[in-house]
């Protein structure tokens, strides 16, 4: 990752292709009430132009997919990892009975561009020709055939694939540096954002990664009983955390985390953070081992790497 890419994304403006993610559309008169019973967050309270983070769970409370849900006047939109979409659509298909809901995978029709950095808003204002006026997470608006979303790290732009290169060149010409996926991966790791299939999978429960995508006030949804039990009468057995390293070595993925000679977790993502000037990692540790500042050891390549547990995020994404 060139240093100028990270500098542009944290001090100016940057643009990157986010091919990892795709788009699903739900239409039909019953789309809102039906999806309300499928995911962990409250869709019925959302107004057009707003959105939320949520997940679809198995009856055992495990995550089948996590997503951003956006509400339009005539549709609901889901943005999630493309690798998760076939499994999610197969699950949804089994759960559709007589409801008036149509579900379409539009990932081949739309490319997603990420626009990052403190000057990202100015770059997008110049592209749209007016102020964006997106001030809350997952708020969004249309611009011609595109959609602009205030996401977890900067903005996402959903663009017709045939226009993606032209729009990327315009944004680069307006002051956004084109950066690689590796730079975006550093920023999302610093922000503590998990990727399905990398950090989390079908063995993960929502409470293990935090409560931001859960509504405890809405009605029933698949897996709700497990989630509610964790909050009201139980606890999580492990937590999704950050790790910082004092040395220069990066552990391998899935390297075990130990404390007092006992294995207490494992690493899911590991990389060097230019902003923190040290190696960092994401991973899971047991409830007994969790405590911010707690010292642990990561065993990798026959080396023992001292590390400290930290709460996420490591760093908040740059203000935009």
The gist of it:
The protein is built from 8 helices and 17 strands.
List the helices and strands and how they pair.
Layout lengths: L2 H9 L2 E4 L3 E7 L3 H6 L14 E7 L5 E9 L4 E6 L3 H11 L6 E4 L4 E7 L3 H9 L11 E4 L2 E5 L4 E6 L3 H10 L3 E2 L2 H10 L15 H4 L14 H9 L5 E8 L10 E4 L2 E12 L4 E9 L8 E6 L2 E8 L10
Parallel strand pairs: 1-11
Antiparallel strand pairs: 1-7, 2-5, 2-6, 3-4, 4-5, 7-10, 8-9, 9-10, 12-15, 12-17, 13-14, 13-16, 14-15, 16-17
How would you characterize this protein structure?
- By secondary structure, this protein is of the alpha+beta class.
- The chain is built from eight helices and 17 strands.
- It has helices spanning 3-11, 31-36, 85-95, 120-128, 164-173, 181-190, 206-209, 224-232, and strands spanning 14-17, 21-27, 51-57, 63-71, 76-81, 102-105, 110-116, 140-143, 146-150, 155-160, 177-178, 238-245, 256-259, 262-273, 278-286, 295-300, 303-310.
- Strand 4 (63-71) and strand 5 (76-81) form a beta hairpin.
- The longest helix has 11 residues, at 85-95.
List low-pLDDT spans.
none
Radius of gyration: 20 Å
The topology string of helices and strands comes to HEEHEEEHEEHEEEHEHHHEEEEEE
Query: How many helical elements?
Result: 8
Portion of residues within helices: 10-25%
The structure class reads alpha+beta
Mean pLDDT: 96
Shape: globular
Beta-strand share of residues:
25-35%
Keywords for this structure?
320 residues; alpha+beta; 6-stranded mixed β-sheet; 6-stranded antiparallel beta barrel; 8 helices; 17 strands; 21% helix; globular
